[in-house]
Specification:
Number of domains: 4
CATH architecture of the largest domain: 2-Layer Sandwich
Main location: endoplasmic reticulum
Helix content: 40-55%
Protein name: Hypoxia up-regulated protein 1
Strand content: 15-25%
Number of helices: 31
Keywords: ATP-binding, Chaperone, Endoplasmic reticulum, Nucleotide-binding, Signal
Shape: extended
Organism: Anopheles sinensis (Mosquito)
Largest sheet: 6 strands, mixed
Structural class: alpha+beta
CATH class of the largest domain: Alpha Beta
InterPro entries: ATPase_NBD (IPR043129), Heat_shock_70_CS (IPR018181), HSP70_C_sf (IPR029048), HSP70_peptide-bd_sf (IPR029047), Hsp_70_fam (IPR013126)
Length: about 1000
Amino acid sequence: MVGTRHRLVGGGRALLLGLVVLATFAAVAQGAAVMSVDLGSEWMKVGVVSPGVPMEIALNKESKRKTPTTIAFRNGDRVFGEDAQTLGVRFPANSYGYLVDLLGKTIDNPMVDLYRKRFPYYDIVEDPVRKTVVFRAGEEQFTIEELIAQLLQVAKGYAEDSTGQIITECVLIVPGFFGQAERTALLSAAKLANLKVLQLINDYTAVALNYGIFRRKEINETAQYFLFYDMGAYKTSAAVVSYQLVKDKATRETHPVVQVLGVGFDRTLGGLEMQVRLRDFLGKEFNKMGKTKTDVFGNPRAMAKLFKEAGRLKNVLSANTEHYAQIEGLLDEQDFRLLVTREQFETLCKDLYERVTAPLDKALTASGLTLDVINQVVLFGGNTRVPKVQDILRAHIGQELAKNLNADEAACMGAVYRAADLATGFKVKKFITKDAVLFPIQVVFDREGESGSLRQVRRTLFGAMNSYPQKKVITFNKHTDDFQFTVQYAELESVLGAEGNTLGSHDLARVELSEVAKKLKAGVAENVESKGIKAHFVLDDSGIFSLANVELVLERTVTKEEEEADETTFQRIGNTISKLFSGDSNDKPSEKAPEGTEEKSEEEPAEKETSSTNDKEDKEKSTADKAEGSDSKEGAKADNGTSATGEEKKVEEGTEAKNETVKPKIVTVKEKIPSKVELTYVSPLEGDLFEASAKRLSALDDVDKAKKRRETALNALESFVIDAQVKLDEEEYASCGTTEEIETIRQRCGEISEWLYEDGSDADAETYERKLEDLRTVANEVYARHWEHRERPDALNALKQMINGSEAFLHNAKNLTKETNPEKDVFTPVEIETLEKAIRGTIEWRDTEVEEQNKLPRNAPVRLTVKDITDRMAMLDREVKYLVNKLKLWRPKVKPTPPPKVEKTVVEEESGKKDDEKEEAASKEEPTEQGEDKPEEVLEQTPEKEESASSETKSSEEIDPTKTQKSSQEEGEEHTEL
């Protein structure tokens, strides 16, 4: 595949990665490539997989495996990555980075305030409609979704360059603590980038998947527990996961499952906070030096330089005990140089180090496990390389830390495996992932009490650490008119503590139901009973909550007369047959009753409808059923005749009691209830706002394409001019043109060169392309002659070899005619003569044309072209191939063989049998001499033994294969034993 790169980390590791991935992909169908994007706060990694090519990391234009998530604008130009970082040092207000955590945030969110404090030179304003973050630089304004979308477009470009294919599908990695607002905002950004998101996968889940892929053979039916600890640039998180082989109840297949059991995080603890503190420390030290009266903290450019140097210094101090911070011309042309020790750096971050173990402890608490059952604590994330962080973790857990993961790329590789699993063009070995809910979601509604007053009811839909994707159902039994309910986050205090405001609005949606009374009035009748209004909710594999549908459930009791009237002849026959095999339906009570009793309970979530139900949910469900629906269940038991008194009566009365348990046929009818959902968190970018953003990005893309086209055309024109001037100074090229042609080319090149450095410096792409085409028209005649003179010797040499081969074939072909070899008359004299004329004519043409071409000067029009030579070679090749194919298809004539003489063979066999009988009779009459061997006795007894063995075989029903069957079996052929 064009542009595909196979650079993997580490020699042995690279080989292992390639082998495991190739073995993991069971079969790859024809399909488009897909990618994963690890859009971190500081770095962006792109994973790709295409048909027939294993998973790999896409390289950027600098051939690096990760790219800074920075974008910069200056004078209409747009740059990304390292170029944007370089521009950001000079113009920090025009270079934007660390953007991911601003997704889905309103302007008053604490995380936005922290961002402003860290980067005071940004002009951040409020979106007038959505109240979200907008970056302003002069007349230009960009929403956070627009900036993220442009970064995703860059990632898409890297992936397409790596695979040589158009990419439209991806899996995006997000922090696990992203709520509904952040996740929907990221989906809007991906849509702006023309990407279809197959799934949003949490970073620790992607890492756990990648870890399990390479240890598939170590996973068994016994659960194994691992803790993954991540410290990145912006945040720190820890997740406890389990690996286990689980059999699917539906398919009966066994697959490895990785399930998230507990999660803890600190969304402000990371390498960025350490870098900011080191930046502020360096700034204070520079001010103490008194080299200038200007405060360094008031100069954005100086602050950007300090921030960049602090990042470099932080990385160096991870491996060294001390290092010098050096910045030339930091402020007012004053240089800065300061020795910083690791001890000083650790003192600056002392309070941060005290928070290192908190996410780990929270994850263990949420999972209900202790450290003694954890197999390993695995590190990933760039800032886990800090020695102090590792020392704290090692002392806390009392064991060595596992560092057998690529800390930068593990999440990206796990996500691209998931992308291949979800895409239609690939088939991979199943590895099931079950994520966990971090922020519980509940439904809140009003219900009228016994006194007539309204009271607020809360029902948890998705509890903390419940696995997802999953579906839930809530049944509203008491509402007979239009009503509304809200969906909210629940129990955030236990998850976020004092940082609950960082999640934004706690209300997620408001749902209004209409036509409830109308549907009930139309549906409920004498034999129809309402089973309540059921609302179906979904938490998909991206962790996004939605209302699937709302419906009114009615149960209509069908009388025996109605059932018989509706039953056709064929149905009666079918029912009769089914009763013969399954028994009378009166022998057991209806299975519908228990389900109905669950639905009769007060408004409560039903059991989960997907296979991801866990024991914890079942316990919660059973507890809720017992607490809230006991009265209705007791009523249901009384109706079904399943109480203790009813059972005793049933035993005493026998058949009559049995007949009393017969339930009439019940038909369930569902009516859709119209519902209006209004999102109450940060609204996604959609509608007119989305179209406006898409137009702005399209305009930027057009500018970039025009810029790239202009640069390409300018480079091509400059290169051609310089190349032509150099070549015309060489005799090899100058000899191929006349004096006038050479002078014209030189003159045109000089004119264009002067124009480029004067008026043509600001010309557009069309002008450059037109001038290049005019110059090529003048110079190509000389270049064409040079090419002909250079390539002609090789073409003539190829023609010579073809002639020699044709002559050799002709010599052999002359011996395969009827006149020379009657038994092998492959060719006719006409065919031999035709080939001979073709060879002779080609030789004569070559000699004549070469002689005439040699008489011409190099600058004259070419007489013998390379095309003429290749045409002659093609003609001669056709003649030879015709005879070669005829030789391949020729078969010698086979003389008919006389039929076998059957009678003679039969007579010989009969005479042979008679001779054998005579010899046997003679051997019985004559005694054996003393010195003779006795093989004849063994031969005489052999038929008797075979007969006895045959009779024994028949009696035991074991029949040996015949002689023919044995021979065919020895030859490896298929046979059937009779």
